[in-house]
Amino acid sequence: MELESGMPRQSKRTVGRPRRLTLEAIVDAACEVGIAKLEMSLVAEKLNTGVATLYGYVRGREHLLELVAQRLVGQALIKDEGQSWQEILREHATITYRLFQSLPQLITNLMAKEPEQHSFDYSARVLMMLENRGLPANLAVNAYIEVNQVVIGAAISMMRREGLAQLIAEDENEWDPLPAILGDYRVTLERIISGYEADLQSLGPKARRA
Asked: Over the stretch 43-73, which tens digit does the pLDDT of each residue have?
């Protein structure tokens, strides 16, 4: 049907067309959905687009989970509020443990590839804060590594605890209760902190300032 003479030509308007997607916008939407409920379909719905469109930016749900984890690490940077080095280690342990609980596949990723930039930046920040609180560089690095190893081990133990609890529930035989320490990093963390407190005392004030 032709337009009447003298009538202005109107351009077609697409109703409900989503804004141009970016990887950052997809990660933003995924963070809003949340790790526990993260599905490609929910993210697509939030962005008013199709699931197939998302695959132009991410490889799939697992890849998107990794990107969300990276964002969470960045957001979870410990704020410098004048807390002691002991509290910094405790905060770091809590953040790391909760992240591994939410995304257990990150433990596998640690063994499969080189550390990524966001992890390096976070580590550098924590180490700088520890040194600013009086821990010599070598002690700060050692304490950070020890805490990481304990937290990763505890996260793996917690996953195993959940599996064992399921088996016990399905077994008709009587089992002793699982030890409370299984999957709990906090007792060992406090021992680590006490050990470094003793190391600092033995170094003396002059060595701590160096």
From this structure: 999 999 999 999 999 999 888 987 887 777 6
Q: Are 203 and 140 in contact (CB under 8 A)?
A: no
- Give me 109's structure tokens: 């990723």
d(CA 90, CA 131): 15
End-to-end CA separation in angstroms for the chain: 86
Q: Are 67 and 124 in contact (CB under 8 A)?
A: no
Residue 137, CA distances (Å) to 40, 104, 124, 128, 197 in order:
43, 30, 11, 9, 15
Chain centroid, CA 22 distance in Å: 22
- What lies within 8 Å, CB to CB, of 30 at 6+ separation is 38, 43, 64, 67, 68
Report d(CA 206, CA 101) in Å as an integer. Answer: 41
**How far is the C-alpha of 105 from the C-alpha of 52, rounded, in Å?**
24
Q: What is the CA radius of gyration of the chain?
A: 25
Each residue of 76-130: pLDDT tens digit? 667 888 999 999 999 999 888 887 877 776 676 666 555 566 677 788 889 999 9
Q: How far apart are CA 157 and CA 187, in angstroms?
A: 14
pLDDT tens profile 75-87: 666 788 899 999 9
